[in-house]
């Protein structure tokens, strides 16, 4: 017997996919256009706009900054997030429940508000250097992801395993590294990647915290677009997309994407 | 190598709730003692205190001549077997078993030898390179056992080790646990809520209730001479009949039961402990007999169930509903009157607290 799929369902599915993927197709097309302005469908085909990315020093420089921030900010958030997630899972009964929600706040507060308040407090208030302020800001916005994703794998972790290690002569702190960490590895990798991508693509926090001489790739993209309207913008976008897809593909291969949807 | 365990006047609290009250317990070298009780009685708390995962608010814990009370858990040198097995999922059977030896800095060559010996002893020879996820429940429990035993601890502790296994495997594994514990002569503390399990493998059993030990003795004594109503009820004395001595009548004692009925208890069969006491009787300790019998508790028979070795009756008496057994040869009809005759070997008389 064949399962019948309702035609309306098919229609909705197709429309949804068009809605999701259509703009991406437009961007990819525009990035290949042999014109000095953005247009779709592309007129002529060239990879010139891709090589052009690397000829504009502002792009290469901010790309470096963005990757550094994504790695640094994510690492910083892991250093805070893993112990926090551990404590929240280990002492679930003893700790008040609102503590867990605090770590979701950076998602709930409008990012633009968060960016503005970080600028006011860190940059203007304490005179923190731009790069340090960016690092703290990025660590903050990705913290919810690291705490939640690492927390999800800790929630299914049987803490008797840690006690077993301790009973066999392994001190508590050492048991965390030899027994707990290896068993939540998947969650840490998944959290790291989610956070990395979020940081790499962030605009709203960075736009407040970037300043003279220091910028990130998405911000540079905005600045570039205000002055020039050439397909480099599209090629940079495709590049960012490509990095994201590549990272996702690695996750899919090693862990399965279900980790992110759990 | 094996050592005795002594808990002296241990109290423990969770926040402001007291979970153990002035608990004392001695386990001799090589002895297996079970803590038996329903959930919340403090048995697991006791084990976790000895393991060092909790700290007592008062009292001391000694293992041999060492004071464990304030010693960190990893320095206590106790083999632990968990209900959930708690194997390390990322390590093979071999590395799971070798974990404790590695922590102790045992050389690689000796470790391999001891681990292999232990894996053989628990019958897991072919599974050394598997991960826990690829083992059955029984196999996991064997790994957990091997992992705890290989460090040759002076004390072994078990926290409901069999409750995740099916009935047949439970019996098999408890025999295995007892065999290994006796072969090593290791002192052991065993926590369970399963009476049959506790009685079958223990030298002595402590029956616990609300953070206190109600009675600590050999299974045989607990079974036949419970010290109080709680223990009596726990070991299957389903009928509790309040009684009061009225007068001595020759070779019998005349007592009045709750509800007013008088009965004569022969002195050569029953030793009355105090003026007021409780007669605790198993269902087989109240024999259903025809109303013409000489002595007994008058009852109206209710529902009859077939137990294979006897019939069991729900009986209405002036002292309340009771469970009594009757012979297979002469079944009684429900609704009829009968006498319930106390059988001394299946009854015990408990003094009532003043």
Note the main attributes of this structure.
heterodimer; A: 262 residues; mainly alpha; MetI-like fold; B: 354 residues; alpha+beta; Rossmann fold; OB fold (Dihydrolipoamide Acetyltransferase, E2P); six-stranded mixed beta sheet; five-stranded antiparallel beta sheet; 8 helices; elongated
Secondary structure blueprint with pairings:
The complex is a heterodimer of chains A (262) and B (354).
Chain A: H1 7-31, H2 48-53, H3 57-90, H4 98-102, H5 105-108, H6 111-125, H7 130-155, H8 160-167, H9 172-183, H10 185-200, H11 206-209, H12 217-227, H13 232-254, H14 258-261
Helix pairs in contact in A: 1-13, 3-7, 3-10, 3-12, 6-7, 7-10, 8-9, 10-13
Chain B: E1 5-14, E2 17-27, E3 32-36, H1 43-51, E4 58-63, E5 66-67, E6 78-81, H2 93-103, H3 108-121, H4 137-149, E7 155-159, H5 167-184, E8 187-192, H6 195-201, E9 204-209, E10 212-217, H7 219-224, H8 229-234, E11 239-249, E12 252-257, E13 262-266, E14 276-281, E15 286-289, E16 297-306, E17 311-317, E18 320-326, E19 337-342, E20 347-351
Parallel strand pairs in B: 3-8, 3-9, 6-7, 7-8
Antiparallel strand pairs in B: 1-2, 1-4, 4-5, 9-10, 11-12, 11-14, 12-13, 14-20, 15-19, 16-17, 16-19, 17-18
Helix pairs in contact in B: 2-3, 2-4, 3-4
